[in-house]
Amino acid sequence: MKQPQLSGYVFTPSERRLDLSGISGFDIRRLYAVANLQAGTLIYALGLAGYRATSQSGGVLSLEYDTTAMDANDPLFVLYEDGTLPLPIGAATDAKLETLRALLAGTLQVDGSGVTQPISATALPLPGGAATEATLAAIKAAILAQVDLETSVWTDGTSYYVRREVVAEGTGAITVSYTDPTGSVVTPPAGIRPVASDNAISLLTAYYDVKTAGTGYSLGDIVARIVAVNKAVSPPTASSAIWLNMTTGAVIAAPPAANIAEQDQNTVVSSAQLPASLGRKTSSASMSIATASDDPVPVAIGVPTDAAATSDTGTFSIVSLIKRGLANWTTLLGRIPALNSGRVPVDGSGVTQPVSATSLPLPSGAATDATLQNVLAGIALLATHADEGAELSKLEQMRILLAAAAQDGTDPASPAVANAGAGIRGWLATIAGLLKLGPAAKAQSASMTIATDLANLEPAGAAITAAAMPAGGAGLTGWLSAIWAALTTPASRSVLFADVTNASLGAGGGTAAVNHDAGASPNQWAKVNAFFFSSQPGNYTIQASNDAAFGNAVPVASGAIAASTGLPVSLPITFRYYRAFIVNGSTPASSVNLTMSFSAA
């Protein structure tokens, strides 16, 4: 019979390949149709153009229909004829009949003639699980009431109906009724026929488990979605869809997707097994879990009610030790003084602080031990004069101290200035006489004499090459007067600018114009000069401007240049900035020169 295969296949849509090797004894002649339930379309139909297999290798089919846009995990509905017929409800299997035949093959003889057999079943207890008379009577009454013989799908070519045949066992009367896809009882039109007998119609059935009860179905029921596919049109179309409760046989309305799950992809879980909402809950609303009684971890961690540990080394839970640490930290924080400008204040008044000055440097100007030893020797020398009966003057005491400290020194062998006095006071008085502030007559001044081996005050001085002292001059004064004369004689002052040196120009080419500043007024220059030279005929231009960027350039001179002939041009200075350039003629020039200058005359 035709059976839906919900598993046993491997779908590779990117290669248009369907592997049905998982179906035992697969024969392509028994394969009626394959539909992609996710895409809602056929991908194979027996003998239908566009939906056939292009090739077959065992149970592996190459599909004619384009499946490349589909997903390998899409659920497929495979309608396959397995070659078997279903047994009627309650029919015995061949194996059971064979067992019964073996039992009845011989005659079981019982001879109880030798003794009277007292048999009474009145007091015998029923075997465990045996049905009672009352239960059997209730089953009989239900069977006599009615029997649902068959449920099938019929059509008139336009609409579809579910036909149900119910027989009353007591009377044998058969009642036939029809329902439409919504489950409503209807009277079909004349001429309807079973869909199974219509070769143009194929039924595709998908089975679902009920996860949440709804109208016409309960938790745990199995419902099926039966789709009638009309193969007489191209492409085939789904003409109608019927939802059927396979558990009760009733047609139902389409259940919400959240209430059902395909049998081969989901595990039915009752909503009662799931929490009403996600998130953290109180203990009374949470599932209880417990660790092993011998698990040391929870014991070591402890519980929030554990008391603080009484020592740092005892056996306590982690919670107890943390509480002790927090208490000690709180005490420590209370003992830390407030910061003073970001620093911890330190008070050492409560105890004597040991201080060592061994490595400390002496303060600036402090007396050394050697100096104090000399002073001590001087004091000892003073003590030797104490018996002279006269008090020594302060100056005499100092003299003795200095003499003892060897601070007086000795006179030079040949002093440059005669010391009219004696000792320190004599020398100081002589020096003071020579060091007088303010101008003084030559007789009252110290004499200075240039060394006899110096020709002037410039020991390493020398004139530059080819420079000669002008006639009538000598020494520094002569050179300075010559420099002044050169600076104040106009004809001798000029500044030169080599703008272009031996350059080449193409036909019609020009030199760059270089800006020159004659200086702000009043300036030292009276003329601007230019010299032009080119190996080929060309033209020159001199421009002037009071703007350093030559935004208002004024041509002040221009003209022709003969080939290989220098051309000097001189103009009075009437602007601050000047520049000049050459524009070559039609013949390339191999040598071009341009020089500018400012001059005082």
Number of strands: 26
What is the average of the pLDDT values? Answer: 79
Major sheet characteristics? 5 strands, antiparallel
Range of helix content: 10-25%
Uncertain stretches of 5 or more adjacent residues:
none
Terminal residue distance: 130 Å
By secondary-structure content and strand pairing, the structural class works out as alpha+beta
Cross-sheet strand order for the largest sheet: 12-11-10-9-13
Strand content: 25-35%
Question: How large is the count of helical segments?
Answer: 8
Q: Give the overall form.
A: elongated
Oligomer: single chain
* Rg, alpha carbons: 66 Å
A few lines on this structure:
The protein has helices spanning 94-104, 133-145, 296-301, 318-335, 369-384, 394-404, 423-434, 475-488, and strands spanning 2-5, 10-12, 17-19, 31-36, 41-45, 53-57, 60-63, 76-81, 147-155, 160-167, 174-179, 185-186, 193-194, 201-210, 222-230, 237-245, 251-252, 260-262, 494-505, 516-517, 527-534, 538-545, 554-561, 567-572, 577-584, 589-599.
Overview of the molecule:
Helix 5 crosses helix 6. The model has no long low-confidence stretch (mean pLDDT 79). The protein has helices at 94-104, 133-145, 296-301, 318-335, 369-384, 394-404, 423-434, 475-488, and strands at residues 2-5, 10-12, 17-19, 31-36, 41-45, 53-57, 60-63, 76-81, 147-155, 160-167, 174-179, 185-186, 193-194, 201-210, 222-230, 237-245, 251-252, 260-262, 494-505, 516-517, 527-534, 538-545, 554-561, 567-572, 577-584, 589-599. With 601 residues, it is an alpha+beta fold. Strand 22 and strand 23 (554-561) form a beta hairpin. Among the domains are: 2-81; 142-270, no CATH class; 490-599, Sandwich (Jelly Rolls).
